[in-house]
Design a protein that fits this description.
The protein is α+β, with helices and mostly antiparallel strands. The protein has helices spanning about 5-10, 15-35, 50-70, 85-90, 100-105, 105-120, 125, 180, 235-240, 275-280, 290, 300-305, 310-315, 320-325; strands at about 140-145, 155-160, 170-175, 185-195, 200-205, 245-250, 255-260, 270. About 40% of the residues lie in helices and about 15% in strands. It has two domains: about 5-105 and about 285-325, no CATH class; about 145-275, N-terminal domain of TfIIb (Single Sheet). It has a six-stranded antiparallel β-sheet with strand order 2-3-4-5-1-8, with no helix packed on it. The chain binds a DNA duplex through strand 2 and strand 3.
DNA sequence: ACGATTTGACCTGG
DNA sequence: CCAGGTCAAATCGT
């Protein structure tokens, strides 16, 4: 199918290139920052990190935001642009499915959904398909170790519990409260990995695409990246830096509330996919900007083979040839 | 009544 | 084959 980028995109190609080059440069700097914080990758972000990494990510986010806006031909000249606005822009272009971006990233989810759709179509076989799913192969997951079960600000609903081999404690599975209402694909599982002191490992999969305040951080008004906004408003950073005066603590299945000061050393983060977890934040599933040009408009022939995450990852790693990217424009 | 949790069944990837 | 991830009926809590 024939498809071409909007004229505004073509005329702004140079500016796109500039923005991306800046993003690449900043990403390179950020990578060096990460290297400096290898052992304590995440704790360095929050309280005692000095903020340099945050600043860099701010700038990178800004670059990408500007790029996306230019691509949309709706640049806003230095204006602070929130993710909400970006989504609004993108929704005008094509698919209104805010989860499509994420779907393109998470093969397992796609498979799962495909299967589910398939099940729905063949209603005769729909009944009793428990446990029928596609296990995620390449998990874009990250873990968070805490000494207590922390409230991460999202609405979770438990959907399963499992005893894990060679583990004293069973693993609890949670999905986003708004999984069905808003097709939010975020899941996590929590497992106690140590007794004294108690240590819990929470493994997150997928991003929240829901917009409910209960689901996004209740202390933040949006799950969307707020480009150009203060650091605190980045979900990425709020995850680490938001003040959690209240923490839920499990004790023999009894949940008690405990006042604790926000500590960063309590939060150890491990990515299972290098920087992809960061990319998940950098590119919110709701940022359907590329997608808005997408399949419904016939761009799929090009962009389907255009691994968004890979591109962003490579941009992050500074290994992407900008001309290579611009060929897609 | 309704939403959340529990729990055994079920299915898949490795 | 089996450990892990998910489903959904039963149960619980409000």
């Amino acid at each position: 199918m024939e498809w071409s980028w909007p004229e505004s995109v073509l005329s702004n190609g140079e500016r796109v290139k500039e923005e991306l080059m800046q993003g690449r440069e900043l990403a390179g700097q950020l990578c060096r920052v990460f290297d400096d914080h290898k052992s304590t990758l995440v704790s360095g972000f929050g309280g005692g990190g000095g903020g340099s990494a945050e600043d860099l990510v701010d700038k990178i986010l800004g670059s990408f935001a500007n790029t996306l806006l230019i691509l949309n031909g709706k640049e806003s000249d230095g204006e602070i642009v929130s993710g909400d606005q970006i989504q609004g822009i993108s929704s005008g272009g094509g698919s209104a499915d805010s989860s499509s971006w994420d779907a393109n990233h998470t093969a397992a989810v796609i498979k799962s959904e495909d299967f589910y759709e398939e099940s729905c179509k063949t209603t005769s076989t729909f009944k009793d398909r428990r446990g029928s799913y596609k296990r995620r192969k390449t998990s874009h997951s990250w873990t968070r170790d805490t000494h207590a079960l922390t409230d991460d600000g999202h609405g979770w609903r438990k959907y399963g519990q499992k005893r894990i081999l060679n583990s004293k404690h069973s693993r609890n599975y949670y999905r986003c409260t708004h999984k069905f209402e808003q097709s939010c694909k975020a899941t996590k599982y929590v497992q106690q990995i140590q007794d004294h002191p108690p240590m819990f490992r929470t493994t997150y999969h997928g991003n929240h695409t829901c917009r409910d305040l209960d689901c996004t951080s209740p202390r933040e008004s949006s799950n969307f990246i707020r480009f150009g906004d203060t650091k605190q408003n980045h979900p990425f950073f709020s995850f680490f830096t938001s003040v959690k005066k209240e923490e839920l603590v499990f004790k023999d299945e009894l949940i008690i509330k405990k006042e604790i000061p926000p500590t960063s050393d309590d939060r150890v983060m491990t990515s299972h996919n290098n920087y992809s977890w960061l990319c998940d934040y950098l590119v919110s599933p709701d940022l359907t900007t590329f997608e808005s040009f997408g399949p419904s408009n016939g761009v799929s022939s090009t962009l389907d083979e255009f691994d968004h995450e890979d591109v962003i990852s490579r941009l992050m790693m500074g290994s992407f040839d900008l001309d290579e990217l611009l060929q897609y424009i």
